Structures are given as structure tokens and as C-alpha cells.
């Protein structure tokens, strides 16, 4: 929750926290794991509309969300470099 409050200002953090809590209740098969919720937060990079994009991506294929949140794509050779393990809590 601290990460959300840090990344999202102007009252948006409370709304986002509520939205993520609701998702984990309504669609637990996708949104019940802390890793997926952390991936949504990390991939959004403080952008409210990216929260929605990340949620939709998780609904389509949560593995793509993990790839977007945890890895950096190398355009030269098409490889991915693992940057962060969101199985672990944020280290704010």
C-alpha cells in the first residue's frame, strides 16, 4: 500500500487500493496473488490509465503482465532481462 501511496498522488491512491481489493474478491482466480497485484502497480509506473491497461492485460494473460512488469525488452536481440522479482514485496 505504501508503494501505491507514493506512486499515485491527489487521492488516486485510495481509489486504486479499493479497486485492487475489489478485484481480488470478485476475480480471485486472476487477482488473488500478491505478485499479480504488485505487477499491476509496477507496470503502471504511477500512471492511472496504465493501471487499467495492466488489469486488462492480466485478464487476457497474466504472464504478459509479469513480463511487462518484471523484465526489460532488448530491441536489438529480442531478449528479456529480469529486473525485479515481484514474488517478493516492494522494498520501499
Describe this structure in words.
- The chain has 92 residues and is mostly helical.
- The protein has one domain.
- It is 64% helix and 7% strand.
- The chain is built from five helices and two strands.
- The protein has helices at 2-7, 12-26, 28-31, 34-44, 48-70; strands spanning 71-73, 80-82.
- A two-stranded antiparallel sheet has the order 1-2.
- Helix 4 crosses helix 5.
- The longest helix is centred in the middle third of the chain and has 23 residues, at 48-70.
- It is globular and about 40 Å long.
- The N and C termini lie close together (10 Å).
- 26% of the residues are buried.
- The model has no long low-confidence stretch (mean pLDDT 93).
Key terms for this structure?
92 residues; mainly alpha; two-stranded antiparallel sheet; 5 helices
Assess the beta-strand content as a share of residues.
5-15%
Note the total helix count.
Answer: 5
- Return the average pLDDT rounded to an integer: 93
Summing up helix and strand content along with how strands pair, one would put the structural category as mainly alpha
What distance lies between the first and last C-alpha atoms, to the nearest angstrom?
Answer: 10 Å
- Report low-confidence residues grouped into runs of 5 or more: none
The major sheet is characterized as: 2 strands, antiparallel
What's the SSE pattern? Answer: HHHHHEE
Radius of gyration: 13 Å
Large-scale geometry: globular
Amino acid at each position: 500500500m505504501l508503494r501505491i501511496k507514493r506512486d499515485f498522488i491527489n487521492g488516486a491512491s485510495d481509489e486504486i487500493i479499493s479497486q485492487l481489493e475489489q478485484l481480488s474478491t470478485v476475480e480471485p482466480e486472476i487477482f488473488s496473488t500478491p505478485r499479480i497485484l504488485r505487477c499491476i502497480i509496477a507496470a503502471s509506473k504511477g500512471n492511472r490509465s496504465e493501471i487499467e491497461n495492466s488489469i486488462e492485460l492480466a485478464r487476457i494473460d497474466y504472464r504478459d503482465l509479469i513480463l511487462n512488469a518484471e523484465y526489460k525488452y532488448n530491441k536489438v536481440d529480442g531478449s528479456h532481462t529480469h529486473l525485479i522479482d515481484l514474488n517478493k514485496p516492494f522494498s520501499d
